[in-house]
Amino acid sequence: xxxxxxxxxxxxxxxxxxxxxPESTATAFEIAARLGYDGVEIMVWTDPVSQDIEALRRLSDxxxxxxxxxxxxxxxxxxxxxxxxxxxxxxxxxSAAERLGASAVVVHPPFRWQRQYVRDFVTGIWRMAGxxxxxxxxxxxxxxRYRDREMLAYAPDWDVTKDDYRHFTVDLSHTAxxxxxxxxxxxxxxxRLGHVHLADGKGSAKDEHLVPGRGTQPCAELLERLAxxxxxxxxxxxxxxxxxxxxxxxxxxxxxxxxxxxxxxxRSGTPAPLDAKAPAxxxxxxxxGAASASGSVSASGGAPxxxxxxxxxxxxxxxASGARPS
Length: 326
Fold this sequence. Notes:
The structure is a single chain. With 326 residues, the protein is α/β, with parallel strands linked by helices. Helix content is 31%, strand content 14%. It contains nine helices and ten strands. Helix 1 (25-35) packs parallel to helix 3 (53-63) and helix 8 (219-228) crosses helix 9. The chain is globular and about 45 Å long.
């Protein structure tokens, strides 16, 4: 009887720079290199280094860690980063991706109070997607909850599958917070799934971003489905390490997340294809305009590589003086 073959996954696993908060963007590059991540996703926020394309290029070159995706500054704390005009933010995110060689820009749906942006959002994202090879992948969000009250903060909807986008990002911490069926959402996204933020959650009202395997979300099932279908995109780890008591504890969490991700991407099995015939959202994106299964996936995971790329490097990192996000 033939021995089972261990398949090395082709999918690149990247570290979101948000995963090292409250440490800096520069620290994220250093950790990604040391642990053996394949690249980083840049969360553009209040750290000046995250906003500076040339500083990011120097960090990428120094650590030999490519920038695989840009997360546009869509958070409440980044309302003034790169402009107060949301379309200017997206234009600058696209420019950053193009200049740094990233393949995707992650975008949140607008806040409900951004009325003009809401009205133009779906058509505007399609327009921008048609002007570049960079994928604009719109991310699922969740209702805001306080005790027994629920606020719908995002429009057109926190469930982005209710609208027509060329590419989607699925975030499994957000599906946990929304208390929605993650695999059903992924089925609705079909072959328009272009990016994945892999993290875990237990259904708390807070967006938890736990290390995969520590919550209730189908992190392993998602990775194994993507691997079975030769999904060729990136997996980006986006986990919360704010409670780490030391740098060593933070790195242990990020190493565990990487190991989990690579383990389940490497498992073989019978393909369970993403539903290419999933019903189109209102306005119906055609299958011909959809992304192929080679989109990018952001996950919380990765194993430390033996003798990482930064093993012989100095601990001093260029650009490390950038301010921490607040």
